[in-house]
Amino acid sequence: MTHADTETTQVLWAPARLGGIPLVHRLAMAPMTRSRATADGLVTGLTQSYYAQRGSLAMLITEGTQPSEDGQGYLATPGIHSEAQAEAWRGVAEAVHQAGSTLVIQLMHVGRVAHPANTPHGRAPLAPSAIAAAGDMFTATGPQPMPVPREMTESDIEQTIADFRRAARLAVDAGADGVEIHGANGYLLQQFVSSNANRRTDGYGGDIAGRIRFPVEVVTAVAEEIGADRVGYRISPGSPLGDIVEDDVAEVYGALVDALAPLGLAYLHVVHLGDEALLRSIRDRWTGGLVLNRAGADIERRAQDVRDGLADVVSVGALALANPDLPARIRAGASMNEPDPTTLYGGGERGYTDYPRLAA
After folding, report:
1. 24, 30, 29: which is closest to 12 by C-alpha?
2. Cα dihedral across residues 270, 106, 115, 44: positive or negative
3. Where is the NADH:flavin oxidoreductase/NADH oxidase N-terminal domain (predicted)?
4. Which of 145, 275, 302, 312 gets the highest tally of CB atoms within 10 A of its CB?
C-alpha cells in the first residue's frame, strides 16, 4: 500500500489552529487504546517513545485515559486522576514537544463497558441506567460477560463531572496542550445520549434535552477549568459499539452540537461512519475547528475532506500506529507498514515502538 503526495494531499501540509492549539499541518493521530500502562495506571518510558516517534504528526490524541477509578473498563489503560499518573504523563508531553508536536490527552470514562475485575476497587460499573451492555469484557482470567451496572445517582453524576474537571486540570498542568472528552464509541457520555442505555426518568433522561444534559455539563465544567480553547469533544453518531442503539441520530447530534457550539471549544472530533448528509449538517452547525476521522479511507480521500471544507484537520489511526513517520511516507509516495493485529493491545515494544521508519 502506497500513498502518493499529490495536488489533492498538498492541502494537508498547510498550518492550522484548533482553538489555542497551533498545528504545523493538518494530519493528527487518532486516539487508540494500546493497554500498556502499569497496574496502577501509569504510562511508562515506552509510552514516551511511542508518542515521540509519531511527533511528525501535527497533533497526537492519546489513548483513552480514565479520569477516575470508576472510569476504567479495560486492563492496563492509563489514568490521570492521581498526582503520580499526571507526573508520568508529564514525561510524555515533554517528549512529544521535543519531537515538534502537540499532545491532547483523551479523557475516557467507559461507563458500563467494563468489568469489576479490571478496576482497582472491584465495584460495579457506573452507567445512566442499570442495563448491561451485551458482550464480553476481556479480563486477566479471560473473557467475562459485562455485568449489570449501577445506575448513577445525581450525586454520582456530580462527582463524575468533578472527576473530569480535575483530570483536565492535571493534564494541562502536566504539560498537555489540551484534552479531548470521549463522547463516542459506546462509552459513558454516549450511553447517556443513547435511547437504549439511558432509561432514566429524571432530568438526565427521557427526551433529547435530558439525554444530552450530562455530556454538556461535563464539557462546560472542563471548559471552565482549563479554558474552552484547550478542549475537544469526540462523537461517533450512529455507532453501535458498546451495544449502543441510537434511534434519532440526526436529531440527537443536531441538538448536542447546537448545545456545545456556543462554548467555543477547540474542536469537535467526528468519527464518520458514512452518513454524508449528517456530516454536512454537523459541519454547518459547528463554527469551531472540526477534526474528521474517516476510518479506512485513503489519504487522498481524507485530504479531499479538507479541500471540501468538511474538515479542518483529519485524524488517522492504524496508519499512524504502523507508520511512525507517516507524513514523510506520504510526501515520498512510499509504501506503508501494515499494523500487526496481534500486538494492538498489551505487550511491550513489539508492534508498539518497533515499526520500521522510512530511513531504515
Report:
1. 24
2. positive
3. 12-334
4. 302
CB 326 within 8 A of CB 5: no
Residue 29 contacts residue 315 (beta carbons within 8 Å): yes
**Given 187, 204, 233, 352, which residue is catalytic?**
187
The cell 436529531 sits on which residue? 251
- Is the confidence at residue 1, as pLDDT, over 60? no
Q: Distance between CA atoms of 63 and 311, rounded to whole angstroms?
A: 22
CA distance 253 to 75: 31
In degrees to the nearest 10, what's the CA dihedral of 183, 299, 18, 246? Answer: -20
Give the tens place of pLDDT for each residue, 3-51: 556 777 899 999 999 999 999 999 999 999 999 999 999 999 999 999 9
Domain 9-343 CATH superfamily: Aldolase class I (3.20.20.70)
Could you report the per-residue pLDDT of 277-329, keeping only the tens digit for each? 999 999 999 999 999 999 889 999 999 999 999 999 999 999 999 999 999 99
Per the annotation, the verdict on 187 as an active-site residue is yes
* Three-state helix/strand/coil letters over the chain: CECCCCCCHHHHHCCEEECCEEECCCEEECCCCCCCCCCCCCCCHHHHHHHHHCCCCCEEECCCEECCHHHCCCCCCCECCCHHHHHHHHHHHHHHHHCCCEEEEEECCCCCCCCHHHCCCCCCCEECCCCCCCCEEEECCEEEECCCCEECCHHHHHHHHHHHHHHHHHHHHCCCCEEEEECCCCCHHHHHHCCCCCCCCCCCCCCHHHHCHHHHHHHHHHHHHHCHHHEEEEECCCCCCCCCCCCCHHHHHHHHHHHHHHHCCCEEEEECCCCHHHHHHHHHHCCCEEEEECCCCCHHHHHHHHHCCCCCEEEECHHHHHCCCHHHHHHHCCECCCCCHHHCCCCCCCCCCCCCCCCC
| Pairwise CA distance, residues 313 & 310, whole Å | 9
Do β-strands 126-127 and 231-235 pair in parallel, antiparallel, or remain unpaired? Answer: unpaired
